[in-house]
Design goal:
Distance between the termini: 50 Å
Order of helices and strands: HHHEEEHEHEEHHEHEEE
Shape: elongated
Number of domains: 2
Helix content: 25-40%
Number of strands: 10
Oligomer: single chain
Length: 244
């Protein structure tokens, strides 16, 4: 079957079509995609265009190119989350090319820092802090719970609508906050009542927790976020190169 595409950004359209077919199971995990020659005929395009589309699929973690065998479809039921780097969830969603992710804000408002948060931020107990609790629904299941706290002294105004969209987009584009670096800790913890309330945990009794301590350029810690993930759906990845 020949699939018609427009001329502009043709390789991106091919990438999106193949990506959708991988996600909906047309091309299943561990299957080999049609060869470059077959794809060239299917999409009525050049081999170079097909290679660009396949390269993009590989960059998104959807296929693995195997020398002499073709392109192996990877398990996309697990999403890759980078350990290094500082990106917003919206940016991560865009980089993965996924449209099936929904954000729900469960709790939002100002609170006075309790002893735990005052210790993390090194502020007085009476310090005002924004509290934002959001779940992420992917492929119909709530599998991430983000619990975020922001110093009101650095973020004077925040709304539920902003939290439903992209907090970082607002912080950088509207408030022009110079967000610079983060320290991250990854631990496995027993599920809490809050996890059970806001996540579809199935029979899992533990979650993977990524603790993010986010700083401005002057080294001020202005955000602390716990990102709580269902065990079976995620792997955390990084790239490392040994120094010569």
């Amino acid at each position: 079957m020949v699939i018609l595409m427009t001329k502009s950004n043709k390789y991106k359209q091919i990438f999106e079509d193949l990506s959708e077919k991988i996600q909906n199971g047309t091309y299943k995990t561990n299957a080999i995609l049609p060869s470059e020659n077959e794809l060239t005929g299917m999409y009525s395009t050049s081999r170079e265009t097909i290679r660009k589309a396949l390269t993009l699929l590989a960059q998104k973690g959807m296929i693995q190119k195997l020398r002499g065998k073709g392109s192996l479809v990877l398990d996309v039921s697990r999403l890759n989350f980078p350990v290094s780097g500082l990106v917003s969830f919206k940016e991560l969603q865009s980089s993965m090319g996924r449209e099936d992710i929904e954000t729900t804000v469960h709790e939002f408002g100002l609170m006075n820092a309790d002893s735990s948060l005052s210790s993390i931020f090194e502020v007085a107990d009476s310090t005002e802090i924004w509290n934002v609790v959001r779940s992420r629904r992917i492929q119909g299941e709530r599998i991430i719970l983000d619990k975020s706290y922001f110093l009101k002294s650095q973020v004077p105004l925040l709304t539920k609508e902003i939290c439903e969209n992209s907090i970082y987009e607002y912080l950088e584009d509207e408030l022009e906050l110079p967000i610079d670096f983060a320290k991250k800790e990854i631990v496995v913890e027993a599920c809490t009542d809050e996890d059970r309330k806001y996540l579809d945990l199935d029979d899992y009794d533990h979650v993977v927790v990524v603790k993010n301590y986010v700083h401005l350029k002057d080294a001020t810690l202005f955000e602390y976020t716990e990102s709580r993930h269902r065990l079976d759906k995620f792997r955390f990845v990084d790239f490392a190169r040994r120094k010569n």
